[in-house]
């Protein structure tokens, strides 16, 4: 498995001859595309048609719970299976600055794939597929730039699947009590913007 991981990494990783525009594009994807996660979460909670607002907020809470599970699982795996990054062992070419901490599973991969699977399961399949495409782009870019192994990204995908399963179980047990409390807290904290009509009640 380790030989496969290294072989795939070397096949994807950029070299000194790689086009500057492609490295710049990969850098943007690797660093900035993940911002779609908080932007969508905030947007879905604060705005939207009144007829869909409840379902959007259910999606937000379930996705947030899944992300918490995913990051917890990711941390546990990193402690149980420490794995150095490619540049830490002198393999390939590194084009993006990163601390030489353990790489498995990828935090970026874990977050974006959890988000994508959540949307497939609890929103619409097409929206989840679009997010999976974003996840695949992020996975490619971070391997291309030399800071992750391919299996780090696969690990993030598997963690995301497991996290969404646990989030669904959590929701069945506690969701009907959690959402009204979060909504009440939101109305308290955002009373002024709600009153001015800047955000939805």
Protein architecture, described:
With 201 residues, the chain is an all-alpha fold. It contains eight helices and no strands. The protein has helices at residues 2-12, 20-32, 36-46, 50-80, 107-122, 125-144, 150-189, 191-195. The protein is elongated and about 55 Å long. The chain starts with a helix and ends in a 6-residue tail after the last helix. 32% of the residues are buried. The mean pLDDT is 94.
Runs in which pLDDT lies below 50 for 5 or more consecutive residues are none
Radius of gyration: 19 Å
Mean pLDDT: 94
Strand percent estimate: under 5%
- Largest sheet, if any? none
**Structural shape:** elongated
Order of helices and strands: HHHHHHHH
Q: Which tags fit this structure?
A:
201 residues; mainly alpha; 8 helices; 73% helix; elongated
Q: What is the gist of this entry?
A:
With 201 residues, this protein is mainly alpha-helical. Helices cover 73% and strands 0% of the residues.
List the helices and strands and how they pair.
Elements: H1 2-12, H2 20-32, H3 36-46, H4 50-80, H5 107-122, H6 125-144, H7 150-189, H8 191-195
Helix pairs in contact: 2-6, 3-4, 4-5, 4-7, 5-6, 5-7
């Amino acid at each position: 498995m380790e030989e496969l991981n290294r072989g795939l990494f070397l096949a994807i990783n950029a070299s000194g001859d790689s086009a500057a525009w492609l490295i710049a594009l990969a850098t943007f994807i690797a660093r900035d595309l993940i911002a779609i996660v908080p932007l969508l979460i905030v947007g879905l909670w604060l705005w939207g048609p009144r007829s869909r607002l409840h379902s959007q907020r259910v999606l937000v809470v379930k996705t947030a719970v899944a992300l918490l599970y995913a990051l917890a699982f990711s941390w546990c795996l990193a402690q149980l299976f420490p794995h150095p990054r490619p540049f830490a062992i002198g393999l390939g070419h590194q084009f993006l600055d990163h601390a030489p901490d353990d790489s498995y599973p990828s935090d970026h991969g874990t977050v974006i794939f959890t988000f994508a699977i959540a949307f497939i399961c609890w929103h619409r399949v097409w929206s989840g597929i679009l997010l999976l495409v974003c996840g695949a782009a992020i996975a490619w870019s971070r391997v291309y730039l030399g800071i992750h192994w391919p299996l780090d990204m696969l690990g993030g995908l598997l963690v995301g699947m497991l996290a969404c399963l646990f989030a669904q179980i959590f929701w069945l047990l506690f969701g009907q009590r959690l959402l009204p409390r979060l909504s009440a807290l939101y109305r308290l904290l955002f009373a002024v913007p709600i009153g001015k009509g800047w955000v939805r009640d």
